[in-house]
């Protein structure tokens, strides 16, 4: 306890001496104290009121008001403790509650009420400080602290703003609909990277992947479908089965990424009014037929808005083995085809999009793999700390770039499932070369669906083996190890050389393109599909 002294005459100090056991007297009667103890008293009471509203009033002698304030304070701290415990033990349940519109409105009202109550408590605390008893310099210091304390009571107001922003974004992104049922113990989601760029008639999903997650273990697999995949069949219960009884099979005009536009322009009436986006539903039906599984929901990200989401997350980190070209500033400062070399990169949104979409001097397979790599890097960035730190930016970006038919009520369970999946190795299968046949075999043009369905089921049956191997480092094998050397990360970097024996660099590749030596550029790009996300 702070020792208070006084230089007052004995008669003035008699009140304190009369009740020596009452340690709170100096707090109740600051007029009997010297300047420094009065200043300390004011600071201590103000800090106590911020941490445990009500204690300042009790110590200062206003026990009735203090007890009322303190009861509410105890309830608030108990509620916060309960939320923390729930976040540790069952984060999915907590997020599910926070995603509920009724709970969101209740939280907004409660936070607004908390802000008003805390403000009134602080005003009452300022009264018991007895600022008039302080000398001018101390009065200015404590006055400034009081202003800061009053501003601190606005924290719940910001919390209400954040909850409301989340409520608005979640309400616009997610559907209010019954929960999605499991199919064979799995959730199967279609992810579309959509592009309505220049020279295109309508929107076309250039990135098409199905993420399948085991609801019990969190083991997940990504099935990537090349944009030029043809002859997609439709399940018997799809209305498009009547429109395309032999599948989407009109030749080169019927590559899979044109289906969305075709249905939106010509066949959207085959789906009833309950279908939010007929084009997306058609893509779900087609991927269900291709893979031989039931795709239950979709999420579509506008590729131009993709960059905004990554920026909201603070960028993504990846490591790649080969060279990747993109449109940018070349070493001499001119604009043209620039290059990212092998190694580690921290991409902002625009660069991540360019990295994922680059196909020059490369293949669609390599492009798909890099897209998968960026997707995984994004998933790793969706950790609780990052989401909380950038919540409003993420919600704002998500509201503009994401469309989905997933039910809002299952958001909590999906987040819990994503946490399980984050800790495990993701299996990948591209429904085309080289996972099916070799480049040039035209498997994507004339697919063997029995073979595809068998490989998909084999991927699921391998989950037990993958679970045992979880945590082991991924090794990227090289088709030409003699050209490379191993790095601690497990990636192989290929040290292609110039005629003089020195390693190639960006300037060299730019020069090779200028003089038309495209074979060297293709060789440099050969391994750019070998990419992994970094934490």
From TrEMBL:
Keywords: Membrane, Transmembrane, Transmembrane helix. The chain crosses the membrane at residues 42-60, 72-90, 102-120, 141-163. Residues 1-29 are annotated as: Disordered. Residues 204-382 form the Cell envelope-related transcriptional attenuator domain. InterPro entries: LytR/CpsA/Psr_CW_biosynth, LytR_CpsA_psr. Gene3D superfamilies: LCP protein. It holds the Pfam family LytR_cpsA_psr. It comes from the Bacteria. Belongs to the LytR/CpsA/Psr (LCP) family. This is LCP family protein. The lineage of its organism: Bacteria, Bacillati, Actinomycetota, Actinomycetes, Micrococcales.
């Amino acid at each position: 306890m702070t020792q208070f002294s006084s230089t007052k005459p004995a008669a003035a100090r008699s009140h304190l001496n009369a009740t020596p056991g009452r340690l709170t007297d100096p707090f109740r009667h600051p007029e009997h104290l010297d300047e420094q103890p009065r200043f300390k008293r004011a600071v201590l009471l103000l800090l106590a009121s911020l941490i445990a509203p009500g204690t300042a009033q009790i110590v200062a002698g206003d026990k009735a008001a203090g007890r009322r304030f303190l009861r509410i304070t105890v309830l608030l701290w108990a509620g916060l403790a309960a939320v923390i415990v729930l976040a540790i033990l069952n984060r999915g349940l907590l997020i599910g509650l926070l995603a509920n519109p009724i709970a969101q409105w209740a939280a907004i009202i409660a936070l607004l009420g908390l802000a008003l109550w805390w403000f009134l408590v602080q005003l009452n605390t300022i009264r018991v400080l007895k600022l008039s008893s302080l000398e001018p310099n101390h009065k200015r210091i404590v006055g400034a602290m009081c202003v800061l304390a009053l501003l601190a009571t606005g924290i719940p107001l910001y919390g209400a703003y954040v909850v409301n922003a989340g409520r608005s974004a979640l309400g616009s992104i997610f559907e209010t609909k019954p929960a999605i049922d499991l199919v064979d113990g799995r959730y199967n989601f279609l992810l579309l990277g959509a592009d309505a760029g220049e020279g295109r008639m309508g929107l076309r999903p250039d990135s098409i992947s199905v993420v399948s997650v085991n609801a019990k273990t969190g083991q997940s697999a990504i099935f990537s479908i090349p944009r030029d995949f043809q002859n997609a069949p439709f399940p018997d219960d799809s209305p498009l089965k009547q429109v395309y009884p032999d599948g989407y099979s009109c030749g080169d005009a019927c590559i899979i990424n044109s289906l969305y536009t075709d249905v939106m322009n010509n066949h959207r009436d085959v789906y009833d009014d309950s279908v939010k986006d007929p084009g997306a539903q058609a893509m779900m039906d087609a991927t269900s037929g291709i893979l031989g599984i039931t795709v239950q929901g979709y999420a579509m990200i506008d590729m131009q808005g993709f960059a905004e989401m990554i920026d909201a997350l603070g960028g993504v980190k990846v490591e790649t083995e080969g060279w990747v070209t993109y449109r940018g500033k070349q070493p001499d400062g001119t604009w043209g085809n620039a290059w990212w070399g092998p190694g580690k990169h921290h991409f902002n949104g625009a660069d991540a999009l360019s990295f994922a979409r680059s196909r020059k001097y490369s293949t669609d397979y390599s492009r798909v793999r890099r897209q998968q790599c960026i997707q995984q890097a994004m998933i790793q960035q969706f950790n609780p700390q990052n989401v909380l730190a950038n919540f409003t930016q993420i919600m704002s970006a998500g509201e503009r770039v994401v469309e989905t038919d997933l039910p809002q009520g299952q958001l909590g369970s999906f987040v819990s499932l994503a946490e399980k999946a984050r800790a495990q190795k993701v299996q990948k299968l591209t429904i085309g070369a080289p996972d099916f046949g070799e480049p040039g075999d035209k498997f994507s043009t004339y697919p063997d669906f029995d073979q595809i369905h068998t490989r998909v089921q084999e991927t699921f049956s391998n989950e037990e083996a993958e679970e045992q191997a979880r945590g082991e480092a991924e090794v990227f094998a090289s088709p030409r190890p003699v050209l490379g050397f191993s790095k601690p990360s497990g990636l192989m970097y290929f040290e292609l050389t110039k005629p003089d024996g020195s390693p190639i660099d960006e300037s060299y590749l730019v020069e090779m393109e200028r003089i038309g030596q495209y074979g060297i550029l293709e060789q440099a790009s050969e391994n750019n599909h070998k990419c992994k996300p970094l934490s």
